[in-house]
Design a protein that fits this description.
Blueprint lengths: L1 H17 L1 H5 L13 H5 L5 H13 L20
Amino acid sequence: MKTLIAAIIFVGVAVLLLGVNIFFFHRPFPDGEISTNPEMRKRGIKCAKQEELELLAAQKGKKVCDGEYSDACKTCALMK
């Protein structure tokens, strides 16, 4: 029983410490969406769906996507 209580307290403290900026300073939660995150775009990170479509297009000799990102890769040029 002591172990369970200690684990619950430990997890609670960890959540509180990890969320200090969000809970107390009301800063926005970091954007993890690949298609809308400017840092991921700058580094050339693409969503898996877009990479798969680019590989398939390259195999078939079609136009490869120009690297523009869309919302959740739904409107990629390769899908049209």
